[in-house]
Each structure stands twice: as structure tokens, then as C-alpha cells.
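Example record used in the benchmark description.
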Amino acid sequence: MTRTVEIAIIAAQNGWRGTLSITGGALPPSQHGQMFERLERVMMQLRESLDEKILSELHVAPNIYPPDDLDELYEWKDMGVNAAEFDLEVMDPAYFKAICPGKSKSRSQERWKEAQAAAVEIFGRGRGSFQSMVTGIEPMDSLVEGIEERISKGVYSAPLVMVPTPGSPYAKFRPPTADWIVEANEKMADIYFRYADTLDVNLLTDNRPGFTRVGLSYPNII
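Model output (C-alpha cells):
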């Protein structure tokens, strides 16, 4: 058992409830088939150490590349997985190719959206299918329009702020201003309010951990 899985189990046994974001990084295309085996191994360890009640209260979401056969998500569900995180990162298709060259070479943006749609069908709207995306790296209009398009299809978007980390390829990119972030978040908040009662949990009233307005969720990366 890896140390991170052990830590997640100890936390859950002591009352922690939240999002378990299961990821092992991006494997090379030749090894994508191994992701299922790795996921199965982690879920087996969780099932062996946690009772069904505790496991059902956790928000368990693999954050990996979509499988070639999207029906595999049904097998994830049988293991105890109850959500999937397929990150688009950016909404504009042109930016997706430029900012996410590895993802776009492996899967088209449309394929990532198809995987999100499959997750909606299998795990549910909102809590069952979500994504992280980077705010401040593409125009505000395409960001906001993309978020509304996704949530209208049942895919919840968790915004992260673009940070030009020193030493990274984006070190010299200009980060968004505070005013830009405030304006973008106000527009996103309006969207979340409009669609709050269309998801499998109501963003305004549900107090379970895991991507709800009231509940707090601290992803535990395994």
C-alpha cells in the first residue's frame, strides 16, 4: 500500500469526508492501458480498509486520461468510484491545442467532452462529472461561455488561477490582474446560481463535501 493511500484511509477512518482525486500523472500513450490496473489496485485497497458506509460518503474521482472505451467507466463504478474528473484546462479549442499539446495529441478536445458526457450519464450531473480549468490564460469571453456550455451539459467546472511559475514554459506569461479575476468570478458565480438546481446536488443547499457551495472539499491526490 502506498503512503498516500494509507494517509487517505487514516483520514477517512477519523471522520474526514471529501474528494479523493486519484491520479498518477500522465502516462505515455503506450502505457495508458495500465491506468485501469492502477486504479483497480487503489480501489481494492480502499475497499479492504474502509466499510461500505464510509466509502459511499467519499467523493472518489479518478483524474486521468479518458479510456479508449468509455464503457470502462461502468467498471469504475463497480469498483466504488462515484465520479470522474476529465480536465479540459481551457475552453477555447485553439487554446486547448496550444496550451495542452500532450492532451490534444492523445485525445481531441471533443473526445474529452465525450468522456465528460459519459461520466454525466454514469455518475450523475455536476458532482459525478467535473473538471478543473485554468482562469486567466484565455480570453474571458471564451472561458465564461465554455463554463456555461459545460454546466448546461451537467459538467461542473472548478476554476484555478493561472500562475506563471518560474522555470516553467509559462514563466514569462502575464498573470491575470485582480480586477480580471474578480470580474471573471462574478460571471462564473452567476452561471453557478442559474444552474444550481439542475445538477445531481443543489449547489446552494447541499452540505456534503465534494463540490457543493456549502460543503468544503479538500482533494487528496493519490
